[in-house]
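PROTEIN–LIGAND DATA SHEET

This sheet pairs a single protein chain with one bound small molecule, zinc ion, given as SMILES. Inputs appear in the order they were entered. The predicted three-dimensional arrangement of chain and ligand is reported afterwards as a token string under its own label.
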Amino acid sequence: MSLRMPAAGGGLVMEHVLSVGEPLAVGDCAVCGTDHDASIIFDLGDYAVSCCAACGLVYLSGQRSAAAERVRYQKDHFDTGYMQMFDIEEIAGEQLKSTRASLGCAGASLASLPRWSPVLDIGCACGHFLNKLRGAMSERQFIGVDVSRRMTEKGRAEFDLDLRGRAFETAGLPPGCFGLVTAFDVLEHVVSPGDVLAKMLRLLHPNGWGVLEVPSERTIFRTVARAAFQMTAGTIAEPLRALYHPSHLTYFTPRSLMRLLERQGAADIVLRCKEAHITRFGAGGYRPLARAAIRTAAGLDRLLGTEAKLLVAFRRGE
Ligand SMILES: [Zn+2]
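PREDICTION REPORTED AS:
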């Protein structure tokens, strides 16, 4: 693995560039903390994908740097147009629905959260979801944190919300008092998802709830992409490269996510699959053939109960 300095600013960026002959390292499983049961399942040339047989976690091989991933996230989500590619208002509305549904499955609701307890959204981007949450809940403090200062600055100006442009571990948040902590599409971007979960749990009020969402590893699309790669001896690699892209370091199955939550001390965990926004209303930007493939695969996933997102509600264990 080589290190490259970007042309201008941004700090040190680790790229998935391997010199010829350098062996691909499996890397430690973020759930089990070891590479003991892990092996490389796809060698994509400049990077590889590993799987841990003990817990089922799939992840990009090799070592990662947290600082480099923060730079990558900012670049992918703000600089290169993710925020422009999709209707963020629509996604935020869907996240509000997911929060209600997830709490509902756990026998809770936005109205039943501890009175006056503050609410935190980790990875808040520009605050669109937090703004919707504020509109749906009683008077209380709403805080958003995101490593992208540019996004939080934009959101502060737009929504007049308390959005903090830094890692949530350093955002001065008091432990044990948040009635709701949400993290949509966060865990797959971080180098140590277990550490993030542990810190998230410490912030929760004893009667508070955590809600998070990550992409699911167990979908028709991934199965087909894997089969195409294997049956053509690696010739058809583009679908795999798109599905296991460098921005997402880990790919959870329901089992590996449950195991990680339990290991970090979560309790009353309720996990369900849900459709991804991209298949419901975000496919408009793709070419007709790709759009049809996305919708067909999503339909099959619906039938099989293997929709592309895992949505979880949980509480802090004793
Ligand atoms: Zn594992």
